[in-house]
Write a structure and sequence with these properties.
By secondary structure, the chain is α/β, with parallel strands linked by helices. It is built from eight helices and seven strands, in the order αβαβαααβαααββββ.
């Protein structure tokens, strides 16, 4: 929450912009050795700031698949889309395009950050649905789809597997997966051992409607 001089909450769609333009520069100036990760970057303003000031190992940013694939028009198309209800709030088309633009450059200080939130059906489809997108079952495939659309598949591995661990001083995994270009759809929820349903983003019924994912992890 970002408050103005009168202790009133600012427009929630403006929170990231206000933080990046006001709070973050002062924070970096006061604590020049502080390592900062700007989590789940979603605005053009943040992208501009990171492209100018980002530094591997010092000031980095993560990006969700949601902010690469959707914009505010889709979040409200045909009524409010529960599965897209998250924070940072989904922004404008221009913001989405700017976020897509920065990831395709393969910058070492930009990496994947899913912000996946496996809320149970009872909370996600309540009258006041909780914030959070459950994307982990489809995140890698969605990232691959975006990088393919951007003609930047050669940048995908660093974005997914190298840049993030490097910032945290973790040895990147030597395990590999194989992605194949194959259309498929999310047709089922994830069901816990207790029988609780958790609905992934992109579901053919609860998502935007008949969504198709164009990449798949080879089993």
């Amino acid at each position: 929450m970002h408050l103005n001089d009168h202790d009133e909450e600012e427009d929630p769609y403006e929170g990231e912009r206000l933080f990046v333009q006001d709070v973050l520069p002062r924070l970096l100036e006061k604590f020049p050795r502080l390592k900062v990760s700007l989590e789940h970057m979603s605005t053009a303003v943040a992208c501009d700031f990171m492209e100018k000031n980002g530094k591997a190992g010092q000031l980095v940013a993560t990006v969700t698949p949601t902010h690469l694939l959707y914009d505010r028009r889709q979040a409200f198309s045909g009524g409010y889309r529960t599965l897209l209800h998250m924070k940072p709030l989904i922004k404008t088309q221009a913001d989405k395009e700017r976020v897509r633009d920065i990831v395709k450059k393969g910058l070492p200080f930009v990496s994947a950050g899913t912000d996946s939130a496996p809320h149970p059906e009872s909370k996600k489809f309540s009258s006041c649905c909780v914030f959070g997108v459950f994307c982990s079952p489809v995140a890698v495939e969605m990232y691959a789809q975006v990088f393919d659309e951007l003609k930047a598949l050669d940048k995908l591995e660093n974005f997914l597997s190298i840049n993030g661990p490097t910032f945290f001083g973790i040895e990147p995994s030597k395990e590999t997966i194989t992605l194949v270009k194959k259309d498929w759809q999310v047709t089922d929820p994830v069901v816990t051992e207790e029988g609780v349903k958790v609905w992934p983003i992109g579901h053919v019924q609860h998502g935007l409607g008949n969504e198709t994912i164009h990449w798949q992890i080879e089993k």
